[in-house]
Amino acid sequence: MVSATLTKSAAAVSRSRRDFSGLAHREPVFGLSITPDNVEKAFTLAKEADELGLDMIGVQDHPYNGSFLDTWTLIGALAGSTRKIRFFTDVSDLPMRPPAMLAKASASLDIITRGLIELGLGAGAFWDAIHSYGGPRRRPGEAVAALEEAMQVIRLIWNYGGPRRRVSFPGKYYQLENAQAGPSPHHNIGIWLGAKRPGMMELIGRSGDGWVIPLSSYMSASEMRAAQELIHAAAQKSGRSQDSIARISNIIGVIDEESGLNRSSGEKTTFVGSSSQWVDWIVSSYRDLGVDTFVFWPAAQGQEESQLRLFAERVVPKVRASIREKPTKSKVT
Questions:
Q1: pLDDT tens-digit readout, 263-274
Q2: DSSP states along 187-238
Q3: The pairing of beta strand 86-89 with beta strand 166-170
Q4: What is the β-pairing status of strands 86-89 and 271-273?
Q5: pLDDT at residue number 264
Q6: Is the CATH code 3.20.20.30 the one for domain 21-324?
Q7: Cis omega (within 30 of 0) on the bond before 91?
């Protein structure tokens, strides 16, 4: 099981539990996940999230899903209808999207939006579905190696701050041969890796700009701590500060102010609770797990708009206020 592998790998790194509260130096970021299956709803939610002052919108990327719109096309359209909210792919499916073209698409949108794009990237998971669309099948080790190559290709094409030039890359999975680099993005786009397995955690620590954490219903707090150990160790070994790596949590659940639903803790389940309980949960994740970005996935079907308003108006302001306060320490007697 992945959880057992993570725990075992983390134990090999450190026998003592590391305190990740030191990571919580970043200002918290709040976002909304939009499912790319309904055009009208997507535009409504994006505009409202922008007007309510959220920071970011994430759009999942499963090109082989026949009911889903193309994620990059949708993000481009949504960005044209909003003012200042940022967008990221949550996460882009690498086996379906050549890295040089991902670099071109993300840089182009970043230039058009004047710096509102980040790149969430995944190694691939649903291999039968990927293969059905003509993509490759890869073993776990191959998927990690291909992703590491892809990151190098993307950064070569972005060519930050350099003159127009040609670049080459003789990779096993991806190649560039005297290719024209550019255009460079408007800002330094973060490459945030969606991952759960130990090999991916080490890659994030070596060269990723962020970790897109799996849905909260899929990963427990103890598994997150174990993964953080691996990221920290790899970052330290590579001479990087772990504080330079963003932690993006996909939090799924229902904000229930009427107490009409059974409460759920969010420990590998959909979180169900009042707005105050959501505040406590998010603040705890920020302080104790070092998570700095929270992307809300409304789980109440047909109530996405009302859930978005509850999140933006009752949860986010109180989380920000609570984080600004110094945590109180209980006295040990």
A1: 777 778 899 999
A2: S---EEEE--SHHHHHHHHHH-SEEEE--TTT--HHHHHHHHHHHHHHHHHT
A3: unpaired
A4: unpaired
A5: 75
A6: yes
A7: yes
